[in-house]
Amino acid sequence: MHIHFTIEDQDRIEGTGPIQVGWFLTDDKVAILYEPPYCMRSQSQTKHAKSASRCPAVLQLESRYFVINCPFDFHLRFDRDSKGKPTLINVLGEASPVRSNKLRELLTLVNENEWRTPNVPILQLKLPYCFIADEVVYITQLDAFGHYRKNPLPGTIFGGRFPIHIWPRPLMWAFEWHDTSKDLILKRGEPLFYCQFDGVDPSRTIKLIQAEKTPELMHYMEQISGVVNYVSQTFSLFGEVEKVRPQSLLTNIKK
What we know:
By secondary structure, the chain is an alpha+beta fold. The chain is built from five helices and 15 strands. The protein is globular.
């Protein structure tokens, strides 16, 4: 029996060449609304050789950040109802491109007793983006610090870091609303957050590819998807999860 290895397979086995990171959408129903992740690139108005956008250190940094754009237009206001319960107001009302019932499915105010800081609400936006890898890779989700906003957000991104080679799960945009006197306005097509990927060797670059949702991958995700609802320290389960992980998660989607 002959086993055929591609150059990319050989690079992965030897730990050389670019690190392959796969991405896919867990829900394809409205896939057209969710733009593919793309590599961060600073904008420059000059072609001068000494321009900051051509600095090797800047290029090295930007090559490691991938951008997720906001899929919808949001204009939200924080309030409390007559009983003092936190609530969201859709300021756009009937003009909102997202129907109210769908908005409630996408956006969630975390229970007040779970806020990290009193009077600082945490808002979560569900997203279908998922990343995987077949070697040790950690994803770090963080604020889009390179994107200038004329009207700054009234709070901060609630980021996180986890291993995508054993813990593939859809991402979520989490926001801590520090100044609730100001509305939260998000525009479709603007950077929502960045993803940074780190492997064992920091000198290796990242190659992002669209991944196929194979039966093995989806079954594996089903096995681990509900764990967060029953166990508080999910990272403690990584050893057990690795025992049921398929040999390979990442298959390049066929165009």
